[in-house]
Amino acid sequence: MNINGDQTGPLTVAVDLYPLVAGVSGGIVPWIHGVLREMVRLYPDDRIVLFHRPGRPPLEIVAPNVDHIALDNHPVAYYAEMTRHCQSMRPDALLRSYPQEEGPDFPFPRQVFVIPDIQHEFFPDFFQTAVLAARRRAFATALSRGGAIATMTDHSRETIVSNSWTMTDDVFLMPAALPEELQETPSKTDLPSEAAAFDRFFYMPANLWPHKNHRRLFEAFKLALPHLPPKTGLVLTGSPEGLQESIKGFEDLPIVHLGFLPHKQVAALFANATALVYFSLFEGFGMPLLEAFHHGTPVLCSNTTSLPEVGGDAVLSCDPTDVSAMANLMLRITTEEGLRENLSEKAKLRVAAYDWAKPAHSLRAALLRVSQNSVEFKPRRPLVSIVMPTRNHGHFIRASIDSMLSQSYDNVELLVMDGASTDDTVEILKSYGDRIRWISEPDRGQADAINKGMKLLNGDILAYLNSDDILLPDALETVVGFFNDHPECDMMYGNADYIDAEGAVIGKYNTASYSFERLMQDCCVCQPAAFWRRRIAQRIGPFDASLQTAMDYEYWLRMATSGAIIYHMDSKLAQSRLHEDAKTLAMRGVIYGEVFAICEKHGGYVSLSYYNGLWAYRLYEAWSWGPKLRRFLPHIHRIPAVFGFLAQVRDIRRDKRRSQYVARTAFNEIDRKLPWAGSLIRRAWFRSAALRRRFQ
């Protein structure tokens, strides 16, 4: 194979631009634009089809071999239309401009995903919980299923390769260069009047996102200002959203925000700035550095992530959390003789090292590689690790252990964690010899036993099986097959039956297809039929040992809110035993207390179904007159349940952060069930800055 991507025939490439919004999406737009434009020029026989939302596309390439096709604005409808186009045009490969939860029906091994960085894994606190979860799900799909990943720098490549969700071994470099439209020479009249009013100014071109570190920049500027020459200012450009909050406390400083500007005015700001100040906490590349280098403008930036790689010796850098160091660099560039000229000379060499031809060839080669990939994922045989917590279950544990040992899948390890049983449990464990591993010692309860056991096991797929539950024959073979078919899946669960003390089936567990909203209604996951990957356990940590009854439900919700991809499989995998000494039957009051706290913590609200259940328990089960009341007034519990639920709604409205979270959950439910309503909400969201401020 030619490493430059040459082949005997041309390629047909579909490009998904749905995630990109000009201006809003930041530097990824000019990056992808520059690479594609050069690839089109270098490979004129290829056919490139750009799919985008209605209206003007986020990037336009005018060439005989390029088509632009506008699709629906709603992601589900958009990707359904894109699927139909792909079935008709039969592209060799698909370029995804950024990970999305939705996507077209096109083989993942033949998709190239563009990922500038995985900043959200390093600074998760910069994102709202629901936004972070959605981002993680989208990235997990790209990293685990994509045929190849394009990224910008060695730093980004290393972080992507080392990520636990990355399963492709094709992560390649596709660096940026200076966009053609930013190489114009500005005139004196192009400099905005607000900037021209300063004798000198520092320049920061970036949206007001948390990782761009504007607040610390303002602090550093305030610290340096008394020692800087008179009439020195700080000029900002980019989206003004968030400015009021970011500038709070610094309103008296000579700082101006000019919003979005034409390219020539941006070029004029670079050309006339005393220095570019770019103390970002995390960058996949740092396009403004190349713009500054092109104009011979000194660069003051962070010494972290990709910026040292891009800037080399042509920048002055420091720790972006050290305000004093940032202020000192501002002083140096304005007072140290010869420093500006020295950096300008080095900048010319740095910018010359970046051109669009190299990344264009790299992308074309990757598209060729994935076009030849098999559409099937290579099956794996991962180690499955199962912990069995037990205490005084001698009358049930043998059946549970035997259900494990009789599994057809053989790459499995079982560890029984006995909480110092006083019945015949230990004798039963000894009877298995070296066929099982077991530990008998006091513990602090079921969750503590599970946590201790998990630390001693090594599998990629994890689960726990209570010593009164049963795993059905071939269940593990089925589970491993499911994970092989769905490499993006973090947790899966199947169906299960209820059995009595004698092992007779007495009912069916109420499992259901997964959605977060459905899981918030009640625990639709049957614990013995649930399995998860080690990577998600490493992200969210151990079970909550402070919970007595609902630690599994809390674990599922914690997974979900962390961004886990959870699937339901419509196959029967296990049996859950109901008997008089079963903990969940004996502690109904405790269960509701724990469930309410768990739902408020992870979902921001408690479902009406739980209020109904709580008041049914209080009126019909916990009260001695309850059975008679149920006969005469079987629905009376709904009245206090509704009042309790409405009181909760009032409390949510008073809490901005909680209301934002619940609003997003509600939107997801509306968007899934009523796409037309979801489209209206999306349109209003993009058009209304006030709405975004209220719910961001």
From TrEMBL:
Locate the Glycosyl transferase family domain: which residues? 199-349
Taking the record's annotation, the residue ranges forming a coiled coil are: none
List the keywords (alphabetical): Transferase
Q: Which Pfam families match?
A: Glycos_transf_1, Glycos_transf_2
Q: Which domain of life is it from?
A: Bacteria
Instruction: Identify the residues that the record assigns to the Glycosyltransferase 2-like domain, covering every copy.
Output: 385-510
Q: What is this protein called?
A: Glycosyltransferase
| Organism, scientific name | Rhizobium daejeonense
